[in-house]
Amino acid sequence: MAIVRIPTPLRSLVGGADEVEVAAANVREALEELSRRHEGLRERLLGPDGELRHFVNLYVGADDIRDRDGLETPLAERDVVSIVPAIAGGLPDVRALMAELRQRVREVSAEQVHELLRRPGPRPVLIDVREPDEVEQGMIPGALAIPRGLLEFRIEQAVPDRATPIVVHCASGGRSLLAADSLQRLGYRDVASMAGGYRAWEQAGYETTRPLRLSPAQRRRYLRHLAIPEVGEQGQLRLLGATVLLVGAGGLGCPAAYFLAAAGVGRLVIVDDDVVDETNLQRQILHTVDRIGQPKVDSARRQLLALNPDIEVVGVQQRLTSANVSELVAAADVVLDGSDNFPTRYLLNDACVLHRKPCVHGSVFRFEGQVTVFWPGRGPCYRCLYPAPPPPELAPSCAEAGVLGVLPGVIGLLEAVEVIKIILGQGEPLVGRLLTYDALRARFTELRTRRDPDCAYCGEGRPFPGFIDYEQFCASAGAGQPAAPAAR
Amino acid sequence: MVRCQPSAMRAIIEHAEEGYPAEVCGLLLGRQAEQGCTVECALRARNLEPARARERYELDPRDYLRADEQARAQGLEIVGVYHSHPDHPARPSATDRERAWEGWRYLIVAVAAGRAQQVRAWRLAGEEFLEEPIAPGPPGEQPAGGPVPANRPGRHPW
C-alpha cells in the first residue's frame, strides 16, 4: 500500500483526511483509485487529456514525478506520494491586466469596424493610438492618429461630445484596451477596442493608406496653423491636398489667392483672360507696375509663388465658358467666385450645381460688399436667390460705378476664410446666409437666404437643364424678376 | 478571522522587508479553527521565478514538502501562503486570484521603500477573494492587522 498525502485545499474532497492509503503499482493507478473513491478529485488533478494539470505537482518521496517516469512512476510498498499544489501569484502582469480590461471594455472585430465605417449614416470616430513611426508605415483610411501617451490630453479637443461612438485601435489590440478603458474613465460612453488591431485589419485585406506628413520646412512655415487645434497637422495636410478654383485674378481674386497661397492651399487654379492694367493696381494687389500688360494669371502666379513656393499655381488664361467650365469645376474642391460679370456668375453657378461643388461668392459695389456660400444640396444656389440677372442699366460694373480699393480686399478675404473653413470642415460656412458689409457705416449685416424648392437648377430631383447662352440670357434680362445685385 | 502568533507575523514582515524590492513567499503553518484559522509559524520558501522576482512568485514545491513534513511532525497543517507586494497595495492581483486554492489563507504584505506598510488576509470564495480580519496570538485578543505605523521605523505592532 502506498500513502497519498492530501494538501489542505483538497482535504474536503476526501472527508478531511490528511493522507489516504491506496493499493497501486504506479502513480497513475494511485490517482485512478483515489478518483474512484472520491468524487471531484480527478478533475482537480488531471486535465481532460488524462495528464497532470500544470498547477499540480506530484512527488514520490522527495522526487518530482516529472523528473522520473511521470504518471507511470512505479510505487513501492509504503512509498509516500505528496500532492503539492503549485503556489504562485504576484503583482498583476500584463496578461492578467488584459483579461481584466476585457471585462470592462467592449471589443469589436476588424470585420465589424470595416462594416461600421462603410455603412451610410453616423460613423464612429476611429482613433489610432499607435506611435507616429508605426502610423507612418500604414494606417486605416480616415483614422485619427493620437498616440496612446497623448490620448487623454487630446481627446476632448478631438471628440468634444462624450456620446460620440469611438473605436480605438492599436497594432494588435493590447494598447487599445488600455486606451479604451481610459476613455471610459473620462466619461466617453460608447467606446470599443478593435480586437487584433491594425494587424487584423491588414490580414483581412482591407484598404490601408500611408499617412502624409509635413516636412520639417512645412512644419516651420505653418507653425501658427499647427498651434490651432482646428487645423493642426491633419488640417494643414488637408489644405495642402486641396484644389481651389479661383475665377478671376482681379479685385476679389487677388487678396483671396494671396492668403490662400500663404495658408498653404496646395493647388490654386486661376482663370482669367485679362491682362494687367494700370487701373487694376488700386486694388489688385498681386500685380505690379512692371507687369502691366502681362496676363493677369502669369502676374498672379509669380507673386503667389514668391510668397509660397510650396504650392502649385496653375494659370488658365481663358475666359470661363461652357466649354471649359465643367472640367475646371470638377477638378476643384472649392470654387471661389471673384468674377465681375453676370454671365460668368450664372455659368459658374450652374457648373457648381452640376458637380455639387461649394462656391464661395463675393461681390462689391463702391463702399458695400457681400459674401455667401452657395453649396448645392446644402443651401440655396445663386439662381435660388436670383433666378434672372438685372437689366444691364441697373447693374453697373466697377469700371462704371467705382469701388473703394480696399473693399474687395475685405470681401475677398472673407471669401478666403470661407474656403479654408470648407476645406478644413470646421465652423459654420455661410450657407443659407448672406453677409453684407457697409464700409461707410462700418456695419456687417447677416441676411437669411432660402433654397428655392422649384429652382430650375438645384431643385431636388431635377435633371440638370444644361448650360445655356449666358451672354444672351444676361443681355435680355428684363423686369418682373428679382434682380441680382450689381457688383464686381 | 485569522489568528496569527506575533512571532509568525514578525517573521513574515522581516522576510518581506529583507527581500524588498523582490517579491518573497512562504507558507503558514497552523490549525483550521471553527471560524478561520490560527497561524502558529511562518516558513520561508524559495521563489522559483528569480528573474521576475519583482512581480512574480512561484513557490518551490520542495519547500512545500519540507513545510508539510514539519507541520505533520508538530501536529499542524499548512493553512495558507504569504507573499509580499513590493510597491503595491496588499490586495490580491488577478494573477493571485487565478492561482489561488480554495481553503487556504493568503496573507499579503505591502512593502514600500523597504518597509512593510500593511498586512491583509484573504480567502478565495468561488471567484472572489474575501478579506478576513487578522488578530494576534491566542484567542480572545483584539483584531489588529491594518496599517503598520510608518512613524516607528523598525518596529512593528506585533
What would a concise description of this structure say?
The complex is a heterodimer of chains A (488) and B (158). With 488 residues, chain A is an alpha/beta fold.
CATH class (first level) name of the largest domain in chain A: Alpha Beta
**Strand percent estimate of chain A:** 15-25%
How much helicity do the residues of chain B have?
10-25%
Radius of gyration of chain A: 37 Å
Give the oligomer, counting copies of the same chain as homo and different chains as hetero: heterodimer
CATH architecture of chain B: 3-Layer(aba) Sandwich
CATH class of chain B: Alpha Beta
The percentage helix of chain A is 25-40%
User: Would you tell me the overall average pLDDT of chain B?
Assistant: 84
Distance between the termini of chain B: 17 Å
- Secondary-structure arrangement, i.e. CATH architecture of the largest domain in chain A: 3-Layer(aba) Sandwich
Beta-strand portion of chain B reads 35-45%
Count of helices of chain B?
A: 3
Helical/strand content category of chain A:
alpha/beta
Q: Largest beta sheet of chain A, briefly? A: 8 strands, mixed
The count of β-strands of chain B is 10
The chain pair forming the largest interface, with residue counts per chain, is: A-B, 28 and 40 residues
Q: Uncertain spans of chain A, ≥5 residues at pLDDT below 50?
A: 479-483
